[in-house]
Amino acid sequence: MPSPATYTFLGPEGTFTEAALLLVPGAAAAIRIPASNVSAALDMVRDGSADAAMVPIENSVEGGVTATLDAIAGGPELRIIREVLVPISFVLVARPGVQLADIRRVSTHGHAWAQCRLWVDTNIPGAEYVPGYSTAAAAMGLLIEGAHYDAAICAPMAARQQPGLAVLAENIGDNPGAVTRFILVSRPGVLPERTGADKTTVVVPLPEDRPGALMEILDQFATRGVNLSRIESRPTGQYLGHYFFSIDADGHVQDARVADALTGLHRISPATRFLGSYRRADEQGVVVAPHTSDPAFQAAHQWVAGILRGESIPPETASGASPTA
Question: pTM score > 0.85 for this model?
Answer without folding.
Answer: no
